[in-house]
Design brief:
about 230 residues, mainly alpha, elongated
Length: about 230
């Protein structure tokens, strides 16, 4: 038996230790403790064993835009997940870390929302940014997305309130991600004086975001965005 298998067996023993049968509960607890000693499994490792993570592809390779960071954070907070941005050779990804089904649901919600905001961004850019230079086009589209995400975040928060085992997540983060640094997202409008057209972009993004609908789904899909 390897350590991973031992942890799985320990979890089963700890579940049995809650039995109403006192003898069965005591025997299961003794076996759990014996396995923990044999395989050098700490209490923190057992606490973290309930935590998992699910990854969603980012639109950036190394430094995501502020609006994407805000979207990922809003989704993570709503579903009680810790959030990590990981870089890769092809693209970056967001890792949602939490208990039970929360990471998978958060990953799904973020992916659907990111796809939607990109679609709305492309439509806005094509219609409203025709005569702008590439850099200004990107900057104004970012303003649109900032407002879109802010509007959608209010809907995402309606899903908040899922039970969170903070101690388990903290134990997991301490074991896996103790050396993480704070993420500095890219804000292309930082320090700029906004003009009328910039405010128009914010207004358009806010209206578009308010029209998005995040609903509890059916069947195997936990959420659906229409």
């Amino acid at each position: 038996m390897d350590k991973k298998s031992a942890i799985e067996k320990i979890e089963k023993c700890l579940a049995l230790s809650k039995s109403a049968n006192e003898n069965e509960a005591a025997a299961a607890l003794r076996q759990a403790r014996a396995l923990m000693e044999k395989f050098n499994v700490s209490d923190l490792e057992m606490l973290a064993s309930d935590v998992s993570e699910s990854s969603a592809k980012s639109g950036a390779k190394r430094t995501p835009a502020t609006w994407e960071n805000t979207l990922a954070r809003s989704v993570g907070d709503a579903f009680g997940c810790e959030l990590i941005f990981a870089t890769g050779w092809a693209s970056g990804c967001w890792r949602f870390i939490g208990c039970g089904a929360a990471p998978d649901i958060a990953q799904y919600a973020f992916t659907v929302l990111l796809r939607q905001v990109k679609k709305e961004r492309a439509a806005f850019t094509k219609l409203e940014c025709k005569r702008l230079k590439p850099a200004n086009k990107t900057r104004r589209a970012d303003l649109f997305c900032d407002a879109w995400v802010s509007a959608v975040a209010r809907q995402v928060r309606e899903f908040a309130g899922m039970p969170v085992n903070r101690a388990a997540i903290d134990a997991y983060m301490g074991q896996r991600y103790s050396n993480c640094k704070d993420l500095e997202a890219r804000d292309r409008n930082n320090g700029r004086n906004l003009r009328d057209k910039d405010f128009d972009a914010l207004d358009a993004g806010s209206r578009s975001g308010r029209n998005a609908q995040l609903n509890h789904g059916v069947s195997t899909q936990p959420l659906a965005l229409r």
